[in-house]
Amino acid sequence: MNKLLKRSIEFILFILLLSFISFVFVKLAPGDAVREILRSDDVAVSSSQMEKQREALGLNDPVLVQYGQWLGRLVRLDLGTSYMTNRPVTEELLDKLPATLLLTCTSLLVLIVIAIPLGTLSALYPNRVIDRFSRLLAVLGTSVPSFWLGLLLIEGFSVRTHLFPSMGTGSIAHLVLPSLTLGLTMAAVYVRLIRSSLLESLGQDFVRGARSRGIGGSSVLLRHAFRHALTPVVTMFGVSIGSLLGGTVVIEVLFAYPGMGKFIVDAIQSRDYPVIQGYMVLMGLIVTIIHMLVDLLNDVLNPEIRLKGER
Questions:
Q1: 146-153 contacts: CB < 8 A, separation 24 or more?
Q2: 68 vs 80: CA distance, rounded Å
Q3: Is 283 in contact with 96 (CB distance < 8 Å)?
Q4: What is the C-alpha to C-alpha distance for residues 249 and 251, in angstroms, rounded to an integer?
Q5: How many H helices and E strands in the chain?
Q6: Are 259 and 247 in contact (CB under 8 A)?
Q7: CA–CA gap between residue 257 and residue 130 (Å, rounded)
Q8: How far apart are CA 132 and CA 186, in angstroms?
Q9: Alpha-carbon distance 65 to 72, whole Å?
Q10: Could you tell me if 111 and 190 are in contact, meaning their C-beta atoms sit under 8 angstroms apart?
């Protein structure tokens, strides 16, 4: 109960700090939301009209006053209204969220399908062909930027061979190239992490004890060594979620995928402050919840962590 209360307080403080910092930085960023709203670059708009619009949006108030008003609406679960679409920000984000979550899940599937078998085989057969191959994959995956890999995949599988569409959504085929782009770059890191963690677990006393008691090799690997090795992998996975969600911004723009990433880029270009602030809070909320779930999963996988936390 105390742990839950502590986590809840930490969660509230984190959201407050994140929202305040992002709010201040968004306001300090160059650009004028009113010019974007009135499109003064294309149509002649008087300065009095712009000033009237600023006053109506509350943009002339001090930043702290604006933040206080925004925070008051947040308590009522109101993220405001988009300057560009005049729709509630909550509705806009929830409309785009499923597409981004789908892309994130398919990218994680690519990561798991590649990283777990390859990392396990590398640990079981060190310095063999499979281990050298995984090392090469790790070097390539960590040195090639995701957007460059995406361009290569578009050139190879869309432009030249027409196997998969390079943009848009609507079918599973539309997810293949963006999922591979995100999943391949992240899998390279996890292959080496699983290898090193599993090698360390295989050398532990409890693994040698299990083998001395006559427990089969596959049972020792799956029930003892692999379970112990998953602890740092799961922890790293929680940290990577933020990078994955952030990475979707670039990939969604590259593949013209209509998710939250592309939407937030358009919002930044339009200086749509309520949308930008709502996106930051929603991402902070998702990442924090995932970190909590990762902590719970670590307690299940390795009871030693839970016992140390209770002391």
A1: 146/181, 146/182, 146/185, 146/247, 146/250, 146/251, 147/250, 147/251, 147/254, 149/181, 149/184, 149/185, 150/177, 150/178, 150/181, 150/251, 150/254, 150/255, 151/254, 153/177, 153/180, 153/181
A2: 13
A3: no
A4: 6
A5: 14, 0
A6: no
A7: 35
A8: 18
A9: 11
A10: yes
Number of other residues whose CB lies within 10 A of the CB of residue 296: 11
Q: According to the 3-state scheme, what is the secondary structure of 25-65?
A: HHHHCCCCHHHHHHCCCCCCCCHHHHHHHHHHHCCCCCHHH
pTM: 0.78
Model pLDDT, residue 43? 59
- How far is Cα 30 from Cα 26, in angstroms, rounded to an integer? 9
Q: Which residue has the higher pLDDT, 63 or 222?
A: 63
Amino acid identity, position 2: N
- Helix, strand, coil shares of the chain, percent, nearest 5, are 80, 0, 20
Q: Which amino acid is at 136?
A: L
Q: How far apart are CA 231 and CA 194, in angstroms?
A: 10
Cα separation, 215 vs 240, in Å, equals 35
Is residue 168 a contact partner of residue 199, using CB atoms and an 8 Å limit? no
The residue with tokens 């947040």 is 74
Tokens 């300090």 correspond to what residue? 28
- For the stretch 170-213, pLDDT in tens is 788 989 999 999 888 888 888 888 888 888 888 888 877 877 77
Tokens coding 173? 């085929």
Token output for 162: 């027409």
